[in-house]
Amino acid sequence: MARPTIEDVARTAQVSKSTVSRVLNDSSEYMREQTRSHVLAVIRDLGYRPSGVARSLTLKRTQTIGLLVSDISNPFYADVILGVESIALAHNFDIFLCNTMYDPQRGSRFADSLIDKQVDGVLVTTTSLSDQFVVELVSNQIPVVALDWTPPPLDEKVGVVISNFETGIAEAANHLVDLGHQRFAHIGGPPHIRTSRRKREAFLGALRAHGIEPANVVVIDGNMSFASGKAALIELLALAKPPTAIFAADDLTAIGVIGEARTRGLQVPRDLSVIGFGDVPFAAQVMPPLTTIALPRHEIGRIMMTMLLDLLHNSVNLPNTITPMQQVETQLFIRESTAPVKKAH
Length: 345
Description:
The protein has helices at 6-13, 17-24, 33-46, 52-59, 76-88, 104-116, 131-139, 165-178, 194-208, 226-237, 251-263, 297-311, and strands at 64-69, 94-99, 121-124, 144-147, 158-164, 184-188, 218-221, 245-248, 273-278, 291-294, 325-329, 331-333. By secondary structure, it is an alpha/beta fold. The chain has three domains: 6-58, lambda repressor-like DNA-binding domains (434 Repressor (Amino-terminal Domain)), CATH 1.10.260; 62-163 and 296-328, Rossmann fold; 165-295, Rossmann fold (3-Layer(aba) Sandwich). Helix 5 (76-88) runs parallel beside helix 12 (297-311) and helix 8 (165-178) crosses helix 9 (194-208). The N and C termini lie far apart (85 Å).
């Protein structure tokens, strides 16, 4: 059986094609409700589904957006994606999910693909890409909203959401110092990532405020994974004076540290205090429950998608005031992976 067309709907409903089109495009405010209801009933009875291609030509939109993440296997992104979806689906936008794996070259390929697909906008939640990525999209008239893109690109088609790393990380440093720790290490993310550099600088700066010089803090570059945390701890334990407190750039790394510590016969937090970043869903379930710096991941996704809709001139009713740049706060959640430094005997 042939797929019903808009002509079939118009003929069955005994109205013009333009009337059917107005109903489909939700622009029937001046139409009699009886007519509108009748056309909708015919659409349902015939099982008519409008062509996405034809609709995009009419509206000059594809109703699709690109969403770039660093690593889809990292649970940090699950809530961000759900937050994006909660707004996107409510406004009839589909999502192309692009997994960059921290690779700028993959990002460049995705840029070309998204431009070819004529997406209406792009959300960038990874900071592993160059400024050229945003420039290329914007030069093709594609609005972009980026997470933690610093310094922010200056363009009317670009929105930025900034995480206030400094507040949460300062709380973490203060917490460790208050517990009596004096030997610290930081396990960061890939060094070419902007957020990795920001977290490292924030932690070293917060410790400097307590008189602890950055040169006295051991810094190891990781890759935001369990294996990264395990490998880093092995390296740290080989030092003459291993750290008693570790701040990891993400929760997966921190949990990897805890697992390796257990393998090595160390107890967290009696022998080693560990703090993560992100507060992924299972951070509170590991043993011991992880002290971590929390980000409102779901809200970040909602804000980013709402900001993109704003750039596309859509009307969105949310309690938050959305501006071209918005800051979200971080907060330290103290659990059981940190404790006072063990006294030497």
